[in-house]
Amino acid sequence: MGAFARATVGWFDRDAKDYRRIDIAEQCEVLSLIGDIAMDKDSPVAHVHAVLGLSDATVRGGHLLAGDVWPTLEVIVQEAPGHLVKTARPEVGLALIDLDRCPPASASPLS
Fold this sequence. Notes:
Blueprint: E1 2-13, E2 18-24, E3 28-40, E4 43-53, E5 59-73, E6 84-89, E7 94-97
Parallel strand pairs: 3-6
Antiparallel strand pairs: 1-2, 1-3, 1-5, 3-4, 4-5, 6-7
């Protein structure tokens, strides 16, 4: 799929209600990249998880927070029949998908 010259992934710390940053300061291969795009307030927001391979055959993974693509990154985006909407959940520390607010595809703000 591609590679990053450097990247940052995160591990969600439920006690801190925030991500612990894991910086990867070297070239890494993208072994897996999966997620979704959902509406959060009035903007689409990507929620992506990555598994990244390092030169010594170890891996790092988590929520993709940042990445500098080099030399390329091939991503396939597939539209789902419905659209996702997130709602802030302060007790969790995240905005989570709210199925009660997800409109049918024909009524989506992304159309």
